[in-house]
Structure formats: structure tokens, C-alpha cells
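Reviewer 2 asked us to include a model.

Predict the structure of this chain.
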Amino acid sequence: MPAAPTMPTVPVDRLSGLLERFRVRAQLHHAGALCGLNHFDAAEGHGYLHVLRRGRLEVSHPGARRAARRLRFDEPTLLLYPRPFTHRFHNPPAEGADFTCARLHFDGGAQHPLARALPPLVALPLAQVPGLHAALELLFAETDQVRCGQRLLADRLFEVVLLQLLRWLLDHPQQAGVQPGLITGLSHPRLARALVALHDAPGEPWTLARMAACAGMSRTAFATAFRAVVGQTPADYLSGWRMALAQSRLREGRPVKALADELGYANPSALSRAFAAKVGLAPRDWLAQAGRL
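Predicted model (C-alpha cells):
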């Protein structure tokens, strides 16, 4: 019986390739006390990263189905809403609670691969996420007083905090309530290697055997583990990743002809057929519906 393949020991960067293709930008929204009722409407079209620095907070989610209707926090806490999601802060009416908050703009909105993979709300005590202290101290120092370049630096520091939070989530998906998908796949030491390879080179001729080899697994073991951990077959994931890239590139104004080779399709017609099968519209019709023409 042949020996089981050994797992490669070279570290793999699970986030850079993904975030280089689908960026996340933070924009300082608020710093200081919030008193009484504050409403954050999903219709605004962006996510939020709230840092409760001091005080008590109750959060409600009107009409929510995938998040608790009401939560209470009594210690410094990070609250990440990766997708537009209506939420209300119920703070003490006089003294309030102390916050530093940012709006989050995910490329592709709710269709951003990470935004789709995360639950509607990730709420974590600051003390639970190692490595945040230094970045938060810099962020608070910038938001506590007005100085030259404050807003730009605060935005970048919020992005650092978000990246550190994403790192933590990749290593603790169960604690954050993450369902099978991209995050759980990237948290798997073997599957992550195949996923990173797909993210970095989507146009390569990926076969099941080649993906399994990247993971250091047999084809059967790889296919079984991939479906259990990611929630779909490797072929379906690859197709979805290519279509997500196609949509992103089309929004940037790239022609279908240029995308076909980049994404591993024999010709523009093949890409258009795959796009229509996955998205439900031809690329040009999809762009017109999105109001991009």
C-alpha cells in the first residue's frame, strides 16, 4: 500500500492573492460617544466595522433571520458587519458609549468572496483577538484628536485592524460561527494550498488531480474533504471563482475577449456561455442590468 503523501511545510499566504483581486476599503465614520438610539441602514449599501471602546451597548437587528434579534455587550468588542445589514445601537441616553467606527466598501458589494463567506455579524471581545492591541492603540491615537492626514491614516489603520481580524477568523472559524465555504476552506491546512493556487492562477488548466497534488492529497480524499469543508465540489468552486473575477473585470471595463484567456476559457464564446450558465445573463446583458453601460 503506498504511503500517504506528506503535507508541505512551506507557509502559505491565504489572504493576499484574494484581497489583491477583491479589495476592501475602510472609511472612518465616527469616533467618540454615541448616545441613545443610532440606526445603520442596509440601504446605505456598505458594511461596518465598529469598535466598542468603553461602555455598555445593546444591538438590535430588525427583521433579521440570520442573526440574533438583540445582543448586549459590556466589554470592549469588535463588531464586523461584512455586508449591508440593518442594525441599531441602543446606548445609554446620557453618557452613551465610546466607539470608533468605519464604513467598509467591499469590491463587488455583497458578492465579494469574503463578504459572502462570513456571517452577517462577527462580534468578538477585543481581548480575544491577539495582535490587535498595537493597531488599535494607533487607531485610537489618530481618532482622539484632529491632526493633518488624520482621516487617511485612520482609514488605513482600520484596514489593518480588519486584516488582523480576518487572520484570526481563518484560524478560528467555528468560534465566529462561520458556515462551510471559503473561510473554512482556507482554515484547512491542506485545502488552503489548493485554494490559494486557484486564486493566484485561475486561468491554469486545473484538473482534480492537479488540485489534489497542490493539497498533498489523493484525488478521492481531496474531493471528499473539499465538499465537506467548503460545501461544494472543487469544479464548482473554480467555476464560481472564475465568474466572480469575470464580473469584477467587466465592471472595470475589461472586454470579454481579453478575459477568456486570463480565466482559462478557449475563446470568448466559451466564457460567455459559462457566464450565462452561472449568472443567468450574458456578460453584456449583465452589465446593462447593473447600469454599467
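Residues 1-5 have pLDDT under 50 and may be disordered. DSSP finds twelve helices and nine strands in the chain. We have added this to the supplementary material.
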